[in-house]
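Q: Here's a chain of 352 amino acids. Please give me its 3D structure as tokens.
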Amino acid sequence: MTGHDQHSAPSLPGTTETSPLAADPAHSDPLPGTLVDAVVIGGGAAGLNGALMLARSRRSVVVLDAGHPRNAPAEGIHGLLGNEGTPPGEYLARGRAEVRQYGGLVVRGEVVSARPVAPSADGDLRFEILLADGRTLAARRVLVATGIRDELPEIPGLAEHWGHDLVHCPFCHGYEVRDRAIGVIASLPFHAHLALMFRALSEDVEVFAAGVEFDPAARERFAALGVTVHETEIQEVLAGPDGGITGVRLASGEVVARSVLAAGTRMTPRLDGLDGLGLALEELPAGMGQKVATGQAGTTEVPGVWVAGNAADPTAQVGASAAAGALAGAQLHGALVMADADSAVAALARQG
């Protein structure tokens, strides 16, 4: 995929998640054995930019990155000024270097548990993070930037084309598939809008909408724009010798030639191992999925925990996710400033 901050390829039976970070020659910093000001869970644009703000504020910060960026299959980021076409791996590598430049640490590791523990003697918050390899980290505050999972329709032959001939965002990669024969797989009535978005990029768009009820206005728009709607279920996605999509076979046996498929995904926050934080979820409109409930600058109802990036805003592209991470990191630092000041006041009172 292109343009989004953090997370994995579609979570479907038979698919696997790649780990570009595991193959990254950049080293993994050692995990500190002492309390740190902040732990950032997730090393995409949101997490790294949050960590950058914290490190520049002279906070001890550790980024824990399992290495499953959402846009890993993409050849380049799009729609991000100054970084148009930059390979996602290169963009993240630069981000890790910038965090380290200011003393932040970036550690490879998968979080299996994160939970609040007993506060300090002066009442400051404490969290314990457990990694899959048994290592633990203690932190005063937590920024969750783990991104989302994109759940695709369960159609044989579909998932393997993710991020190449199978796309989902007209802004992230629509230009790259312009003027091609595009098939839009609609699983919700809302996907009529997705089809119209791709119709603005190509005159050859057909919609596959078995079991989906479009309203009369949507069907009128399709008819006016020459968009064919197929009501029959897709049996399988067909590929040519080079591996690229050539079309779909319907349950009726009809083959419809297409070179690109677009599918709206159901998006859910990736919160594996984070149940102990007790983050609240909200339903997205039109059946699009879920997000973590957040307030201003990524605050949550859980004291000491912020959420930024796609986990809180599934439609955010890289730039918006990075900005959200910066805001969350800045507010997290501000909360620590107040906690430190209150602790100093209490200490002075004890001395008096």
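Q: Can you summarize the key feature?
A: The chain has a mean pLDDT of 91.
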